[in-house]
Specification:
With 360 residues, this protein is of the alpha/beta class. It has 12 helices and 8 strands. An 8-stranded mixed sheet has the order 1-2-4-3-5-6-7-8, sandwiched between helices. A hairpin with a 5-residue loop joins strand 1 and strand 2. 49% of the residues are buried.
């Protein structure tokens, strides 16, 4: 849990307590590596790409022998498929009678390029690793489904943060491959303004650290941990909740120092982090949103620094998709800022309605 939160919101890792896990979901999962031979990236680079994938449940086949109960869940920047074993997600969704009951659904949790146990710069290529983009990541997911798992169509894609944006790339690149889309915590437009600025500043903070040494470091650059903690305060936190939890200067200072200590003790790999943050650079599904004709449940939260609701873009852009429903969750002392996307209790009833929607 903490490693992912440090990579996106160091403060969240230090401050957000979670309930004890009711079920040991990893023991009920299957894992494998799928090698995508000669994978071609957008920039023309080629690599035998390893995609790691975790699955829950059993594929069910129709009369034609095709898998008909597959659901894919896509993680955020710095995360992995295993992040969806956290109790606030798994215990709310995977059990008997729940929305993604694994006795009914075949749940697919990939580690995307540059993340988890899939191919990434820290495997050895460092800054010579292909400069992947969101389009590359979705293309790799597509090949993983077809070549590795034999899935020709999905009942649903759930995506959080970066995975939310991947959902829109899926909808515009492979229209109808997923019968339903549930993108949580993102916008469907070019990465620009504050959203691009915090990413660029994070990248440059790592590169400015002398210990980074052009990516050829022997120990993780100290400055990247500090930058991760500092920027995480703004990108991941819910100001309403934070003010409620830490109403005095002393309490706020103590929480900040705890976050900094945890960031220093377990920092993300600096090169991996650069690639993760920069992979969104050409993301812009807006021109193709009209291609998305399947039912869409789009959920953002009012306390999300990365996708500030006052811009008003989501409400406008949702209208470009004929079957999209947009929900903005209000900020409370209980919501989790940008990380609200992974607390299923806030949106699981709406997800159940989406899955009950009839599709072709």
């Amino acid at each position: 849990m903490r490693k992912h939160l440090l990579s996106l919101s160091a403060l969240g890792a230090a401050l957000a307590a979670t309930p004890s896990q009711a079920e040991d979901w990893p023991k009920r999962a299957a894992e494998r590596d799928v090698v995508l031979s000669d994978f071609t990236f957008e920039d023309g680079s080629k690599l035998d790409l390893t995609m790691h994938v975790t699955t829950l449940g059993t594929p069910r086949r129709n009369a034609a022998g095709e898998i008909e109960n597959a659901v894919m869940v896509l993680h955020g920047t710095g995360g992995s498929g295993h992040q969806f074993f956290r109790p606030q997600f798994a215990d709310e969704l995977y059990g008997p009678g729940q929305v993604l009951d694994i006795s009914k659904w075949y749940v697919i949790l990939p580690d995307n390029i540059g993340h988890g146990k899939s191919s990434k710069p820290s495997d050895g290529l460092r800054m010579k690793f292909p400069a992947y983009t969101y389009n590359d990541m979705v293309a790799a997911q597509h090949r993983l489904l077809l070549e590795g798992l034999g899935v020709k169509r999905l009942e649903l894609i759930v995506g959080t943060s970066m995975g939310c944006m991947h959902g829109f790339v899926w909808g515009t690149t492979y229209p109808g491959f997923a019968k339903r889309l549930a993108p949580f915590a993102c916008n469907a437009m070019e990465i620009a303004g504050r959203n691009r600025m915090w990413r660029k500043l994070s990248i440059e903070a790592i590169k400015a650290d002398p210990d980074w040494n052009g990516g050829n470091y022997t120990a993780q650059p100290r400055g990247s941990a500090v930058a991760s903690a500092a920027i995480g305060v703004f990108t991941g936190g819910n100001p309403v909740r934070m003010q409620d939890q830490y109403p005095t200067r002393a309490q706020a200072d103590a929480a900040a120092m705890q976050a900094l200590a945890e960031a220093r003790s377990n920092p993300p790999d600096a090169n991996d982090r650069i690639y993760q943050l920069d992979s969104s650079r050409n993301y812009n599904p807006l021109p193709g949103l009209a291609k998305i004709t399947v039912p869409v449940l789009w959920v953002n939260s009012a306390d999300d620094f990365i996708n500030p609701p006052e811009l008003g873009f989501a409400e406008k852009n949702a209208k470009l998709m004929p079957r999209a429903r947009y929900i903005l969750l209000p900020a409370t002392t209980d919501t989790r800022g940008h990380g609200t996307h992974t607390w299923a209790r806030f949106w699981k009833k709406d997800l159940a309605k989406l899955l009950a929607t009839k599709v072709k």
